[in-house]
Write a structure and sequence with these properties.
Layout (H helix, E strand, L loop, with lengths): L11 E2 L18 E9 L16 E8 L5 E5 L23 E2 L4 E2 L4 E5 L17 H14 L7 E5 L1 H12 L7 E4 L7 H19 L3 H16 L2 H7 L13 H12 L6 H13 L11 E6 L7 H10 L3 E7 L7 H4 L1 H12 L5
Parallel strand pairs: 4-7, 4-8, 5-6, 8-9, 9-10, 10-11
Antiparallel strand pairs: 1-2, 2-3, 3-7
């Protein structure tokens, strides 16, 4: 891959990521300052449903070593293009993995992260029917704009893992390898049931003219599905409030998480992306790129048995790595050392 990848359209920049100052470590080349890239979506692009996206662009972010192999990174529905720490947008959603000297090493790779559709100031106020395949079909538009024939790897977590599976199935010629964390080839019915309740909360709140309250309450419920009973038992007492209607300690925690969420998610976008999770389907046998899977035995949203079935059906599985965790579905954000070890192994042979 040529350095042309690092020199395309750039509308916003941040100072270069903080250098790795550990003793004995020296960067191979200056790390490219993180750059926002805004790419027009073709006018004739339609979702599988036949709908058009109101926002006519894809928003992505490129950073890392100029001319290095390209790694696409995608996370859960709350994630986006700000994967690494920046001066203007805080720590990023996965700075523990995407950093100089880290497992997705900005000294070795260029990293491309993107915002899931629908997004942007013209995003619709009503839900769209968007599939993970639709998200995957937008990625070649982005790669073509960057003059990148293929990505060396796609690392996807949660919803991003679903999109990665869909991309690998549809565009194997544009991908070197796939790493999927806490995502499978289908949604589990129990997880769909939990998300269905969240969507009904959102719909009721919208109908009542209180969409932000609905986002906050649905977020409280969703947090209970991301984590484990063991973690909540270790963190919170069961001390009752003085009177009925008062808040228990665990409810204070959930309330704080809920109140923070409307700042990053609207009701209509959550309805769209939550439904997209439950529409997800790929045929594992059709995914021919080498694949590494990471699953957690405590994950109730993506049960380990689904990860094992996916592994058994993939024709080019490198390995499935399982681990216990106190953190359930959120383990990919919490178990830094374990995830780093698997990622380092998976990506170590990518040519420079």
């Amino acid at each position: 891959m040529t350095t042309a990848l690092a020199k395309k359209t750039i509308l916003e920049t941040d100072p270069a990521c903080r250098p790795d100052t550990r003793p004995g470590r020296k960067s191979i080349a200056p790390i490219l300052p993180a750059r926002d890239i805004i790419v027009p979506i073709p006018a004739d692009f339609r979702l599988t449903s036949g709908e058009a996206l109101a926002d006519p662009v894809i928003r992505a972010r490129l950073q890392g070593r100029p001319g290095a192999p390209l790694v696409i990174v995608a996370g859960g529905i709350s994630s986006g293009r700000f994967v690494n720490r920046t001066e203007t947008n805080g720590s990023g959603w996965w700075s523990g993995a995407v950093t100089a000297g880290g497992p997705i090493d900005l000294d070795r790779f260029q990293v491309l992260a993107f915002d899931f559709a629908p997004d942007g100031p013209t995003a619709p106020s009503t839900p769209l029917t968007v599939t993970t395949g639709d998200q995957a079909r937008l990625l070649p538009v982005l790669l073509d704009h960057l003059e990148a024939p293929r990505a060396a790897a796609f690392v996807g977590c949660s919803y991003g893992g679903m999109v990665g599976l869909a991309f690998a199935e549809a565009f194997p010629e544009r991908l070197g390898q796939l790493v999927v964390i806490s995502a499978a080839h289908r949604p589990h019915p129990l997880a769909t049931a939990w998300r269905g309740v969240q969507r009904r909360i959102l719909q009721l709140a919208v109908e009542a003219g209180r969409p932000e309250d609905g986002v906050a309450l649905a977020r409280e419920l969703s947090m209970t599905t991301y984590r484990t009973p063991e973690e909540l038992d270790a963190r919170f007492d069961t001390v009752a409030p003085e009177r009925a209607g008062g808040r228990y300690p665990v409810c204070d925690y959930l309330g704080a998480r809920g109140r923070a969420y409307p700042a990053v998610m609207t009701a209509s976008r959550w309805l769209t992306l939550s439904d997209s999770i439950d529409r997800h389907t790929v045929t594992p046998e059709a995914i021919t790129v080498p694949a590494t899977l990471i699953g957690f035995t405590s994950d109730r949203l993506v049960p380990i048995d689904d990860m094992r079935e996916l592994a058994a059906r993939l024709p080019n599985l490198f390995r499935l790595v399982e681990a216990p965790s106190l953190y359930g579905h959120d383990a990919f954000l919490k178990e830094d050392a374990f995830v780093a070890d698997v990622l380092t192994t998976a990506l170590k042979d990518i040519d420079q």
